[in-house]
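Might I ask for a little of your time on a matter of protein folding? What I wish to show you is a protein chain and, alongside it, a tokenised description of its three-dimensional fold. I should value your view on which stretches of the chain appear to form regular backbone elements. You will find the record immediately after this paragraph:
***
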Amino acid sequence: MSDETLTDRLPLVPGAVAGAGAYLLGYLLTYLWQGSAVEEQLQGINVIADLLGGEPIAVWQGVGWLFYNAHFVRTRAEGVIGGTRSWNAIAAADDGTLTLLYLVPVLLLVAVGALLARVATAETPGDGAIAGTAAVVGYLPPAVVGAVVFTYDGSVAPDLVTAVLLAGIAYPVVLGAIGGAVGGVAGGK
């Protein structure tokens, strides 16, 4: 038994860097992969917004909604005809090609968890899983900020509660732990 506490085993600074990097890289990959398709989808909506004197929806905002949809965070539109509406564009897609977007945050966060286990020199799956959870330190802040930044006209945005709880906390903790456990197994050999 050592006097080492759980927080002593967490690679907090590497977790902050790797978690934030995973969030930014996930958004970038989503933008590069789907940016032109999002732009095309927004053209009709933006014509109507322009006719009504509103600002057009920026492509980077639409891609942000899609990135949050990849975390199972729905996009909410308040004040539309009939009240509040919410949707997940990935789940609603007809052709299924968008379904692969669900893998973007999963693969990145599992990889970050494995990396953090290596940084923490974890030698067991348990130690690796603990180290992998440090990804939340870096993933949560941009997940919260992004949910606010990707707001259009004060009424269309990722659902803030699930953006924080699901995308910001659950995804990096669970997937980071899974990747960390795998990294811990590799470190124990």
Observations:
- Residues 115 and 135 are 10 Å apart (CA to CA).
- The chain has one domain: 11-187.
